[in-house]
Each structure stands twice: as structure tokens, then as C-alpha cells.
Write a structure and sequence with these properties.
The structure holds three protein chains of three kinds. Chain A has helices spanning about 1-30, 35-40, 45-55, 65-70, 75, 80-90, 105-140, 145-155, 160-175, 190-220, 225-230, 235-270, 280-285, 290-320. By secondary structure, chain A is mostly helical. Chain A has two domains: about 1-90, no CATH class; about 115-320, Orthogonal Bundle (MetI-like fold), CATH 1.10.3720.10. Chain C is α+β, with helices and mostly antiparallel strands. Classes of the chains: A mainly alpha, B alpha/beta, C alpha+beta.
């Protein structure tokens, strides 16, 4: 197990390096230079040049060939490319170009807000959709199934923005069941995340239920299900014990795959409900080409993704005795 | 109705995307304690569906039993509620399946799955149920059962898994065991062991056994009576001795011809010509007539479907071409089995 | 057997969520504290005056920092009054300014004042010199160097000196700058290289506010989180992306509400608090709201005192006769309409080989757009048609002038286009217009312009992009036509004219890369002149050159619509000043009556 984890983490190194390479390429390809933003609207060319020097944009892109030919090895590698790798891998993230806040501090203060919203939403979404999928699978072919599947398809085709606009206007403003927006940390947070959480679940439910229904129905065609019924087990018992545990394997796979989409979804929710999370931070950073921030977030996300995959594998092993981590 | 399990005129249909399929069409058979009924036929002939119909395991809503009765201990199982039939299912009538590889749930230990069946039908404490599970594993010849009870299916061989399936099925001492191709997926030596095991257990428990197979060799080893099915119907139904002595239906004869025999030099087996008919478009008349070696030019064979008739004591048959068929009385089930006096 | 009904899970979850929603709302309402509720549409980047270049950050930090001068709250046209300065500067020539500081001004209490156990010390002239040197310090990469660049004797040299320092070397802020002298604690003498009549406007600008050296040293790189100023408010809480809370500075100097204003102010109740001690409001709270709908909803709930009108809600608030709808009036909402110091245009890159050398083409494109229609479709009539670059708000604006190039005239445009083909020496290629925005409104505008140009027989292609990509385009001179605008920093047309001065070409503010010798000569002349009729005449000459040369298709000037509740007293829109909360007052009882349930 331990050796497996170590091996998996070693395999992750090329992935991480690849991510770094891609971010470097993107930063060079995406149009937009943060220097103009920093310089302000009336800046002179000299000021902009000064800023570019300060940010290290004037350094050679890959290798300082001049320094190399003079034999100054260390100086030769003082390039944008090598600095990008060196700084990221040593977690030496600079301050944000726009807010001048240390990036880690801002991530530390924003990640809890994002998680406070995303975690209950995600768990609620998964739990609710599995529950509904079980009902639908149990009632397969009946009118309950047909109606629920119809509702799912309708729900899937409504964009998330519509849920947000509707929920915020009617549930929060007209009916006053929820605060319109805002965020406080601690227990107070639940008051504020309730509506966005609910809307996130509602908008995701259609596709999740449909997917899980398919997973469940696939499992229900298995031979072991027939065996279980032949034993005289009732349908709920077969569904909850036999089908659910087997269905966990494809479900776990989708969980990890949906985390990036969840992140995007939260971005909208965070904006509309003024939740000071990672979504708006990333968007602001992108809109001002705050490369250090984008880099730190992409790097952290890819680390989390690698860890997530590892956790997935461990979960597989927990759920399915046929899988062992060696 | 004094028979333990008797099905009469069972009809089961499936709705498919291409249309309605009658998988079982007026099938009747019976089985009694200590006796073994073999149902033989090619895949898709409806033999498994008839067994699943008995268990009430027809996948709904696509499948539906549209006619007939299933009499068990004097009551028609088709008239019972779902709850009532669940009490019989796995308890008094148990079933084992063809694929021991997939018929066990891969994510639970075999003990867990056996205990589940035991606790469902018997008021036992968990501990006792586990003891019983070990015991039933021992009974089916699983070595070191006390440890194997904690094994997962994938840790066992195919033969062992089938033994587990049998142990699970027999854990509640059922009156009837339906075995659907129990040995098909196993290699030959294991097949023999499993059949031997089934015979031993059946004798010990005075259990009725319904054995579904496509393999006449298996029938020969274990069955007392045999029903031959073709295209959703029984075409011949008699004792195993009578059938092996003189198969009357051209289809049964074809099955025998396709058996490899010791000492036979011919390398190619005589398969039955033609293909299994499409259940969505059965031929008119006798469903076997397009493949029938006796010639399909007969107008009657092409237009009228022969029903089962008692062509001789203990032997029912559905074939116009058989000698004496015309004069025989219609009969579903061989009324007077020649081996009625049994020593079992 | 553990039988769980899967349906049970859903209602339990919903219940938890619903219950969580039913909390109490506003605890401050009850306490009687006077709280001003505001919203922030964009990110506040920081509160270090040196580094503030955007209106959002200015509007917040200006409650904390003060400069030498400020705008009179009520008088229009806008005029300056002393703030930290005791009076207007003295000096015979136009090159030396002597400012006397108002006595008794102290910095707000802050832990950075270690010598006095956190008690804020007196403001001295050296604090200004220090703050301005920080802006000049290259290492600080300040956005605001443009304010002082090439104006003050010795300051540019100070900047060069900081630029020569190697990494890790400390800047010596004691290094003298000849043009910035403090003969005593309350006297600041500024010596200029050449006349700079706009200096007072810029000394009313937030970035020129004095900064305590103790704070910069104490907080180091985090100074942007710890504003220490002399103003009426102090930062209490700042959660980035969420909210900002400020409280009254107990050591704020005595300042009084103005006793005179513009005509109509007395009738509007704006002089009811005349002569009273400022500020009134105890606490100011900003809530970050990035989207239109939630901002509008919390305003309608009374959780904001004032709000603009998002485009999608315009018709719900305003009727076709530009009056507030009665439902809004019944809620105690009032409407204020005022002019913005802004001008919007499609600019031409004069270095582009096609549009830059083809005046008939530029004029034709300018005539192709039906401005009144544009105003109606895209702004709900919240704009005025432009005849040039100077907005109507400026006293230099001449309402008599009708610019033929700004009149919708497709016939003339088609004729001009024929000339344009001759000038070009062949059929005109497709013209590309860069647009900073990919949203629906930008696309609708793009389509409108495409159709307008199509109507005169010109093919255009709209290139939609985000702001940084757009900036890249114009700063590297690689756009052909670009959609842009400018909001003046101070009420002097010089702020607009600099956009066409040849020494300011990209990446400077002259994004048109416009070069005109005659214009430059006039600009240099006017720039050194104090306000006068003569200068006004020169500005008109300059504007006429631009009108005719057409380096831009001038479209509209902005008109702002602001709604506020009647419990927000002394509310008068101001387009140049930001530190205005001190003048405003909340009728707490009226708010409670209106919002309370």
C-alpha cells in the first residue's frame, strides 16, 4: 500500500512537469500583458519597460545564450522558462501582480469559503441523485420512472444561470426564505450558502440522476442481482445492498471527474451570491493576466487532481475486494 | 394435484424493441421429491425462461407470464403476492445458475451472501447463521470451509464458486432445486464432480431437482425424466431410459446424432441442419419443419402445429410423422411414467 | 433488515437547508447606529494611495486618505477648496508653489506609531514629500508616476537614481529632491520645471495623499492592507472579495458641512446640515456584488442606500418619459440624473496603413453611425450624442458646435467612400474593429456597427476579446479600429487633449497614435496656461482639428442615472471627488420604518 502510494506519486511527477510546461506555453501564447494593467491608464513607455523589467519579462525566454557563451552557467539559466519551473516547484509563489497579496495567504483565506459552498453542494448532489436514481431504477419502466426521467431531461436542458436568476429572485427576494447574497465565516455561513447550495444541487440533479440511473440499471442486469432475487430478497434490499455497492465503482470515477466542473459551476454561484471563494479569485486573475496567481492555482489544482486520483484508487480498493493496491 | 411442483400451460412473453416474443408457449411439466427432471434444448428455446417463470424472476416490465399455472404444494404460485412468493423463493424453491463467475456478488464475501439467504428465511442469530453457512459449505465439499467463508468470489475457482452457489441454494433445505445449466461453464472433471454432488445432495434431502441443460450427456447422468424443448414448446417428454432408448422426435434424434460417441470414427458430428428459428418470426405449422430431416414438403407440417400426444405410456410427443401419433390422445405430461416405481 | 426508503434522504436534506435559511437579518438596524451601506462592483486591489489607479479602490480608500485639496461638495461647475492645505498656494511665478498645511491634522491611531504607543502623530510637510518620492521610486512600480513625470525639479532624477540601484539595495528617501522642500513642518514648497496649471487638480487626487513613513516601514509589503490616513474614517474589517467595513476616525480634525452650494441645493434640502461638524455616518459598509441582479435586489430590499440602474432593470425603474416609476417613488426612492465627464468612441490607429492615411474613409465611417439611434438602443437614452471629445460637463464645451462628421449622413458617407477608394488606390479591404468585451451587449453593438457600415458599402469585421488582449492590441499598435472611452480625472480639457499629443503615443495614452504638428504646438502652449478665455479658445482650436481630422468616431458622452432612498440625506452626485461619505447622513428612523418588518 505505502509502496503503491509512493509509486503513484512518482508517476505524478511527469504530469506535474507537463502542467508547468503547458502553463508556461499558455502564458506566452495568451494575448495580454499584465504590465499595461499595472502601469495604469496614462503610463509612459518608459514606465511600462520598467515594470516589465521588474516582473522579469525582459529576461530571455529559454536560455541566456550570451551568458552561456561567457561561461556564466547560473546566469544562463536565469530565464523566464527556468524561473517558472524553479519558483513553482519550490512553491515560491510571489505576490499577486494586482493586489500585491501573497498568493498563499489569499488562497488560504478563500479556499474555506469555496469549500463551504462546494462540499455540501457536492455531497448533497451525489447523495440526492443516488437516492433518486435508486428510486428510478427500482421503478424502472413504470410511470414514476418515465416522469422522473422526463423531469431530469428538462432539468438538464435549463442552464445553471436560469436556476440562479430564478432562485435568487423568487426564493430569496420575493419569498424572503434566504438572504439574497453575502457570506460570513463560521456557523453563520450556512445561512448564506443554503440557497446557492440548493440551486447547485437542483441544476446538477438532472444529469447526475440520469447517469446514475444508467449505472444502476446496468448493474441490475447482472447475474448476481438475479441470484439475490432468487434468494428471495426484496427489491429495496437488492438495490441498497447488492446494486449500490457495485455501482459505487463507476460512481467514484465520476466523482473525481466532476470536480473540475463543480469548480466552474461554483464560479457562477460565487459571483451571484458574493461568496469570496476561489472562483472569483481565479476569474479576476485571468481577467488581469495575473500570471503568478493563475500559475499557483493551476499548479495547486493539478496537485489536488493527482491526489484525488490516488484517493479514488484507494476508494476502489475499499469498495471492490478484487482490486488491491500493489 | 399431488405433485410437488407442476406447471401447466405456462406462457411467458417478452416485449422487445422489435416486437412481442413468446419465449414459453404452453409448457407443462412436473417434478416430485427425489426425482430429477431434465429440460434439454438449444439456447433460446425457452427452457431457462420456464424455470425463471416458476421463480417469479421474469424481468419486469419487459417480461410477463400471460397464461398457465404453477402449482406448488397445492397452491398456484402465479396467484401469490410478491411478498408471499418471496417467502417461497430461495426457501422452498431454490435456483442455481449457469455462470458461477458472475452469479455471486463480487463485492461481498461468500459467507455474507450465504448468511443473507439463511437469515432471510430462518429466525437465527447472526452467529448461528454463520455457523450454518460454514456447515453448508462443508456439505457441498468446500475444503477448509471455516476460512473460505470469508473469501470473496474472485478468490475461488469456478468449481468452488458453483459449490458455494449450491451451498447457498441448499442452505434453507429447499423442496425443489432448479439448476440452470449448472455445469456448462465448468471444465469436464469439475462438471462430473458437481453433478455427483447434486445427485448425492438430492438423494440425501429427497429434493426435487429440475436440471436445465443443452447437454444430453448431463441428462443421461442425472435425470429421471426428460423434457425436450424446441422453439418455446416441449416437443418430447418421457423418461430418460425411453428417450435414450428410442428418441421419437426428429429434433431429439438430431440432438442424439450430434453427440460424440466413443469408438465412432466419423470426425464431424452431425449437427442439425439449418438454424434456430427467430422467435419474432417462428415458422408456421411445426416450428421444426424447415429443419426437419423427414422432409418439410408435408402440407400439414407446414400449416398446423402438432400438439403433444401420449404416443405410448409415459411418452408424449408432438410430431405428425411419428407412427401412431394420429391415434394417440392429447396429453401434456406423461401420465404414466414407466419408472414410476422408484427405489429412490 | 435495514430498509431505507431512498425518498427519505431528499426531504431531510431540503429541510436542513430551508431551516438554515431562516436566520435573522440585520442586527445593526436595531442599534440606532448610523450605517451607510454601499456596494462594490469590482475588486478593491489595495489601499495604498501610491498604487491606486482604479475608481473602485479610489472610492473606498478616499474615505481614509486626504490630499492637499478637495472639490467643493455642492458647487457646480466643480471647484477646488483646501483640504489638508490651509489655503491656496502662494507664489509669484508659475513655477514655485508654497503650501501651508492646516494645523492640528493627525494621522489616525495605528499600531505602526510605535514611538507613541499607537497614537497617531501630527501630519507634517515631509509626509507629502515622502509619499511623492514613493511614487517616483521605480521599485514601487506605481501606477501614478504620470502625475509627476517631468514636472518637479529633481524628482525625475530621484527616479533615475532608484532605477540605478541594484536589487536588495535600499532607496534612500532622505536623498534631497530640489523641487520638494519643507522649510518647516507646516510648509511645503514645490518647484516646477515649467508651468503646470493642472497641479492643484492633481493635488486633490488620491494618489498624492500624504503617507506616514512609520506605516510603510511597519507593514512593509502589506501596506496596501493597512491604510493609515488623516481622513474621517478608519478601516475596521476587510475580507477580500466579500466586504469592507470602516468606522469613524475619532481623531479626525474639525471639518464642517458647506454653508453654500449651487442654485437649487437649498430647495433640495442639501443645505439643511450647513455648518455642522463632519462626518455624520458612524460606519460605512461595502458589500462586494459583482452581478447586476443581486445588486438590484439588495437595493430594492433596502440593503443598499443607493444604486445605479442595471440595463436589464431600467424599464422597471424608469418610465418612457425618463421619470421614476410610481412604484419606485412609493418606496421612497429618488432619481438623480447627472452628466459624466466621459466620451466614448471608435478610435482609429493612425499608424495603420489603411485607415491612418485615409481621412475620407474615417469621415465616412463617422457619418455612417446614427448616434441618436445608438443612444436609444444601447444606453436606454442614458447618453448624449457627442460632437467632439470634450464632454458637456466641462465649461469649455461649446453647445453651439455641430460637427458634420458626427451627423448621420449615409449619402455623404457613400460619396466620401468613393474618395476613400481613390485615396487607397483600389477597393477597400475589410476593416477590423477590436472590441473589449465578449458579452451580449458588446456583440449587439458590434452587429449594429457592422450593419451601419454595410449600409454605406463598407465591410467591417468585429474582433471581440477580453480587456487584457484588447490592451495588448492597442498598446502594441496592432489594432485597426478600437472601441474605447475616457473618463476625465479632473475638470480640465487638457486631460482629454493629452490623448492626441504625439509624445503620448502607445503604449502611452495616445492610443490613436495621432501625430499632428499644429495640434502639438497648441497643446504645448495651452498646457502651460492657467485657465483663461485665451486658453479656452486654444482648446476649441485643438478640438476642431480633431473633429476634422477624425482620428476617432466620437459617439456619445455618458449620463448617469442613480437611485437612492430618501433616508440617505445630503446625497449629491459628484464626478471627480471620492471622499464624500463624510457629507452624507442617514435618517435611521426613516430607514427602519421603511425596511423594518
Amino acid at each position: 500500500m505505502v509502496s503503491y502510494i509512493i509509486r503513484r506519486l512518482l508517476y505524478a511527477i511527469p504530469t506535474i512537469l507537463g502542467v508547468l510546461l503547458i502553463t508556461f506555453i499558455l502564458f506566452n501564447l495568451i494575448p495580454g500583458d499584465p504590465s499595461y494593467d499595472i502601469a495604469g491608464k496614462s503610463a509612459s513607455a518608459e514606465t511600462i519597460a520598467e515594470i516589465r523589467r521588474e516582473l522579469g519579462f525582459d529576461k530571455p525566454r529559454f536560455l541566456d545564450t550570451e551568458a552561456l557563451s561567457q561561461g556564466r552557467i547560473a546566469a544562463a539559466f536565469d530565464s523566464q522558462f527556468f524561473n517558472h519551473f524553479r519558483n513553482t516547484l519550490t512553491l515560491n509563489f510571489p505576490r499577486s501582480l494586482t493586489s500585491h497579496e501573497p498568493i498563499w495567504d489569499e488562497i488560504k483565506s478563500r479556499a474555506p469559503a469555496s469549500l463551504t459552498l462546494a462540499a455540501p453542494m457536492f455531497i448533497g448532489l451525489i447523495a440526492t441523485s443516488i437516492a433518486i436514481a435508486l428510486v428510478v431504477a427500482f421503478a424502472r419502466g413504470s410511470w414514476v420512472d418515465t416522469i422522473l426521467v422526463f423531469i431530469c431531461v428538462v432539468g438538464m436542458s435549463i442552464p445553471m444561470l436560469s436556476y440562479i436568476l430564478f432562485g435568487q429572485h423568487y426564493l430569496a427576494y420575493e419569498l424572503g426564505w434566504f438572504p439574497i447574497l453575502g457570506y460570513e465565516s463560521g456557523m453563520q455561513a450556512f445561512k448564506y450558502i443554503a440557497l446557492p447550495c440548493l440551486l447547485g444541487i437542483a441544476s446538477g440533479l438532472g444529469s447526475y440522476v440520469r447517469f446514475y440511473r444508467t449505472v444502476m440499471l446496468d448493474e441490475m442486469r447482472s447475474d448476481y442481482v438475479r441470484t439475490a432475487f432468487a434468494k428471495g430478497l426484496s427489491s429495496p434490499r437488492v438495490l441498497f445492498k447488492h446494486v449500490l455497492k457495485n455501482a459505487m465503482i463507476p460512481i467514484i470515477t465520476t466523482l473525481v471527474l466532476s470536480i473540475p466542473f463543480l469548480f466552474l459551476g461554483s464560479l457562477l454561484l460565487e459571483r451571484f451570491f458574493s461568496i469570496p471563494g476561489m472562483g472569483s479569485y481565479f476569474l479576476d486573475a485571468f481577467n488581469s493576466r495575473d500570471f503568478p496567481v493563475i500559475n499557483a492555482m493551476v499548479f495547486t489544482t493539478s496537485l489536488l487532481y493527482v491526489l484525488g486520483q490516488l484517493v479514488t484508487d484507494i476508494c476502489y480498493a475499499l469498495v471492490d475486494p478484487r482490486i488491491s493496491l500493489r | 394435484m399431488n405433485d410437488l411442483l407442476q406447471i401447466r400451460g405456462l406462457c411467458t412473453e417478452f416485449r422487445t424493441e422489435d416486437g412481442l416474443v413468446r419465449a414459453v408457449d404452453g409448457v407443462s411439466w412436473q417434478v416430485n421429491p427425489g426425482r430429477t427432471l431434465g429440460i434439454v434444448g438449444e439456447s433460446g428455446c425457452g427452457k431457462s425462461v420456464s424455470a425463471l417463470s416458476v421463480m417469479g424472476l421474469i424481468p419486469k416490465p419487459s417480461g410477463e407470464i400471460v397464461g398457465g399455472q404453477v402449482w406448488f404444494k397445492g397452491q398456484d404460485l402465479l396467484k401469490l403476492t410478491e411478498r408471499q412468493i418471496r417467502e417461497i423463493r430461495g426457501n422452498e424453491i431454490a435456483m442455481i445458475f449457469q455462470e458461477p463467475m458472475t452469479s455471486l456478488n463480487p463485492v461481498f464475501t461468500v459467507g455474507n451472501q450465504i448468511v443473507e439467504a439463511i437469515k432471510l428465511h430462518q429466525k437465527l442469530r447472526t452467529r448461528d447463521a454463520w455457523d450454518l453457512a460454514v456447515e453448508s459449505l462443508q456439505r457441498v465439499g468446500v475444503p477448509s470451509a471455516a476460512e473460505r467463508v470469508y473469501a470473496y468470489p474472485h478468490q475461488l475457482s469456478g468449481g468452488m464458486r458453483q459449490r458455494v452457489m449450491i451451498a447457498m441454494a441448499l442452505s434453507c433445505h429447499p423442496a425443489v432445486l432448479i439448476a440452470d445449466e449448472p455445469t456448462t461453464a465448468l471444465d469436464v472433471t469439475i462438471q462430473a464432480q458437481i453433478l455427483e454432488l447434486l445427485r448425492r445432495l438430492q438423494a440425501g434431502e429427497r429434493m426435487a431437482l429440475v436440471l436445465i441443460t443443452h447437454d444430453l450427456a448431463v441428462i443421461a447422468q442425472i435425470a429421471h425424466t426428460v423434457a425436450v424443448m424446441y422453439a418455446s414448446r416441449i416437443v418430447e417428454y418421457t423418461s430418460v431410459e425411453a428417450l435414450f432408448d428410442q428418441p421419437l422426435h426428429p429434433y431429439t434424434q438430431g440432438l442424439f446424432r450430434s453427440l460424440p460417441r466413443l469408438g465412432q470414427k466419423k470426425r464431424r458430428l452431425d449437427a442439425i441442419g439449418g438454424t434456430v428459428p427467430n422467435p419474432l418470426a417462428f415458422p408456421s405449422g411445426c416450428k421444426f419443419h424447415p429443419r426437419c430431416p423427414l422432409g418439410c414438403d408435408d402440407k400439414r407440417c407446414q400449416s398446423v402445429e402438432p400438439n403433444l400426444r401420449l404416443i405410448r405410456p409415459g411418452h408424449v410427443l408432438a410430431c405428425f410423422k411419428a407412427a401412431g401419433y394420429e391415434d394417440s390422445p392429447p396429453c401434456d405430461i406423461p401420465t404414466q411414467a414407466p419408472t414410476e416405481v422408484s427405489n429412490g | 433488515m435495514s430498509m431505507k426508503n431512498p425518498l427519505i434522504l431528499t426531504p431531510v436534506f431540503l429541510l436542513v437547508v430551508l431551516f438554515a435559511g431562516c436566520g435573522g437579518d440585520d442586527q445593526d438596524q436595531a442599534s440606532g447606529k448610523m450605517v451607510r451601506y454601499l456596494s462594490l462592483g469590482a475588486k478593491v486591489r489595495g489601499m495604498d494611495p501610491m498604487d491606486i489607479g482604479d475608481t473602485t479602490s479610489s472610492s473606498v480608500a478616499s474615505q481614509i486618505f486626504e490630499s492637499l485639496y478637495q472639490y467643493h461638495y455642492l458647487k457646480r461647475p466643480y471647484e477646488l477648496i483646501p483640504c489638508l492645505a490651509e489655503d491656496f498656494p502662494t507664489g509669484e511665478d508659475q513655477l514655485t508653489y508654497t503650501f501651508k498645511l492646516r494645523p492640528g491634522v493627525v494621522f489616525a491611531d495605528d499600531p505602526c506609531f510605535t514611538a507613541t504607543q499607537g497614537k497617531g502623530r501630527q501630519l507634517v510637510a515631509a509626509d507629502f514629500i515622502y509619499a511623492w518620492k514613493r511614487i517616483a521610486d521605480v521599485k514601487n512600480i506605481s501606477k501614478n508616476w504620470w502625475i509627476f513625470e517631468d514636472h518637479i525639479v529633481g524628482l525625475d532624477e530621484f527616479r533615475d537614481y532608484t532605477g540605478r540601484l541594484k536589487a536588495g539595495e535600499n532607496v534612500d528617501y532622505m536623498r534631497p529632491v530640489e523641487g520638494l522642500q519643507a522649510p518647516d513642518d507646516f510648509t511645503l514648497v514645490v518647484t516646477l520645471k515649467r508651468p503646470w496649471p493642472q497641479i492643484l487638480y492633481l493635488l486633490a487626487h488620491l494618489p498624492t495623499a500624504p503617507v506616514a513613513r512609520e506605516a510603510v516601514q511597519y507593514y512593509g509589503k502589506s501596506i496596501h492592507n493597512h491604510p493609515v490616513g488623516t481622513g474621517p474614517y478608519m478601516l475596521k474589517d476587510w475580507k477580500r472579495g466579500n466586504k469592507i467595513v470602516m468606522v469613524r476616525n475619532p481623531r479626525f480634525r474639525q471639518e464642517f458641512y458647506p454653508v453654500e452650494g449651487s442654485p437649487g441645493d437649498r430647495e433640495a434640502g442639501l443645505l439643511e446640515d450647513a455648518g455642522k461638524v463632519l462626518p455624520f455616518v458612524d460606519e460605512a459598509r461595502w458589500q462586494v456584488v459583482e452581478e447586476d441582479q443581486p445588486r438590484w435586489l439588495i437595493f430594492m430590499r433596502g440593503q443598499l442606500d443607493a444604486s445605479g440602474i442595471p440595463k436589464d432593470f431600467y424599464n422597471r425603474a424608469i418610465d418612457p418619459s425618463r421619470q421614476l416609476r410610481s412604484e419606485m417613488k412609493d418606496k421612497g426612492i429618488r432619481l438623480q440624473i447627472f452628466r459624466d465627464p466621459s466620451t466614448y468612441w471608435y478610435g482609429f490607429n493612425m499608424e495603420d496603413p489603411v485607415v491612418g492615411t485615409n481621412k475620407p474613409l474615417r469621415q465616412a465611417m463617422s457619418m455612417a453611425i446614427n448616434r441618436p439611434e445608438y443612444v436609444e438602443i444601447f444606453t436606454n437614452n442614458r447618453a448624449e450624442v457627442a460632437q467632439g471629445v470634450i464632454p458637456p460637463l466641462f465649461k469649455e464645451y461649446d453647445p453651439e458646435v455641430i460637427n458634420p462628421n458626427c451627423q448621420y449622413n449615409p449619402e455623404r458617407a457613400r460619396e466620401l467612400l468613393k474618395e476613400a477608394v481613390e485615396v487607397h488606390g483600389g477597393p477597400l479591404p475589410t476593416i477590423t474593429i477590436s472590441t473589449p468585451g465578449t458579452d451580449t451587449l458588446s456583440r449587439q453593438m458590434g452587429e449594429y456597427v457592422t450593419l451601419a457600415m454595410d449600409n454605406i458599402g463598407l465591410k467591417v469585421k468585429i474582433d471581440y476579446m477580453d480587456w487584457p488582449s484588447f490592451q495588448d492590441r492597442i498598446k502594441t499598435k496592432s489594432s485597426q479600429v478600437f472601441q474605447m472611452g475616457w473618463v476625465a480625472d479632473y475638470p480640465d480639457p487638457e486631460n482629454f487633449m493629452q490623448l492626441f499629443y504625439s509624445k503620448n503615443v502607445s503604449p502611452g495614452p495616445n492610443n490613436f497614435n495621432y501625430r499632428n504638428q499644429a495640434f502639438d504646438t497648441l497643446y504645448e502652449k495651452a498646457k502651460a496656461m492657467p485657465d483663461s478665455n485665451e486658453r479656452r479658445r486654444i482648446y476649441h482650436q485643438m478640438e476642431n482639428i480633431i473633429r476634422d481630422d477624425c482620428p476617432a468616431i466620437f459617439l456619445v458622452h455618458g449620463v448617469a442615472f442613480v437611485l437612492h432612498y430618501n433616508w440617505l440625506k445630503n446625497y449629491k452626485p459628484h464626478v471627480f471627488g471620492y471622499g464624500l461619505i463624510k457629507y452624507q447622513r442617514i435618517d435611521v428612523a426613516a430607514r427602519q420604518k421603511s425596511v423594518g418588518r
